[in-house]
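agent> call fold_tool(seq_1)
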Amino acid sequence: MKRILFAFILLLGLQVSAQQHFTESIYKNKDQKTLTYAEKEGQKLYLDIYEPENSFKNRPVFIFMHGGGFGFGSPRNDDEVQLAKTAASYGYVAVQISYRLTRKDQSFGCDFEAEGKINTFKLAAEDFLDAVSFIIDNKEQFNIDPEKIIIGGSSAGAEAVLSAAFNQDLLI
């Protein structure tokens, strides 16, 4: 009877432990890595990768694009860095993406024509998809499961991510 009780408690403990992944901050973060995923128009586009220490293989990946009106901003601003570090502490591989800032020192407001806006969305969505392809192509290096990808963005980054995910006609 003691053996059965011991086995039950052991299995219950393993089940509870398995449920902590991705729902509790139980991991320390590795040092952030920066890799170039593309070079376009003479500009190197990079990924900042945040990983948990001592976690398992085939981890889910959280890919995020920063905001900034397509003209400024960085994946290294304090809020994006904290978001990535928090995701990694929960067991996710977190990736912050840089992209071409095609509207740098220019307006993206009502005074900017629709055709230019469409092209801006297209280029940012293209950069996003290139970054995702790079991550998937290097899945072994990052120990990620390409079937478990979470995407997100802030402001302009969110518009680019949504364009890439839901407006495939834009990319033709």
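agent> call fold_tool(seq_2)
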Amino acid sequence: MKPIKRGRLRLAAGISYYRMKRYASWVVNGRHFASVRSASPLPHLHKRHQTPLLRQLKDVEMWMQHNKVTNLRLAIERINGIVIRPGETFSYWKLIGKPTRRKGYLEGMLLSHGRVLSGVGGGLCQLSNLIYWMTLFTPLTVTERHRHSYDVFPDSRRTQPFGSGATCFYNYLDLQIANRTNQAFQLCLWLTDSDLVGEWRAELPPTRRYEVYEKEHWITPAIWGGYERHNLLYRRVYDLEGAYIGDEFITENHAYMMYEPLLPGSSQQ
């Protein structure tokens, strides 16, 4: 389906409507949201991952990347150490709150309808991407995740399958993760000089190992012009001795490609 371009007034009205709807859902949906943070890390590491803070992207000025680091630091201050007890749900935006200049957030890179823009709080998708990816390697349950609708940058140096991130936009494009296990989990986050680093830790050691992979990865011409990209994400589950337990569906991804698929360094699968 061809992307629909909407006017500014309609976009603003839609954003206001969905934000109010989200505020209401936080109050009346009956979920118990995680709110307690601890400075002491839980004893057992379940997953650790890191991503570079600064990357040279085509047509993206580096000042946006440097401002992003400030935005990430402010957001991490609100969620680092959060403990998700059994029966609780982690909500990305409920914990971070609205990124504003008053809180110290700077103009950073935003992706809107396939275009690179600058906006206050830009760059926080790197944090939601990291948290989502790490969660796929734990027994936690992702209950809300929004895929990126546009594939903006070629696959040069991509280390994860296409569609393995989670876009975010305050507050209605949220990332929510439920703890349906019998132990508490804790999200630990920090910045080094070069990377954003995260860990999921828990009260008990892991009993499973997960391998995330993709199926049905297609790049096809769209009837309206351009190209569309699709895949399915799954994960194989093993016990700690390597015995195969099962195969679990994770999600389906679709995106409009904003570059030619045969560019050098882009995926041709």
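agent> summarizing second result for user.
Helices lie at 8-28, 62-79, 92-96, 125-135. The chain has four helices and 14 strands.
agent> awaiting next instruction.
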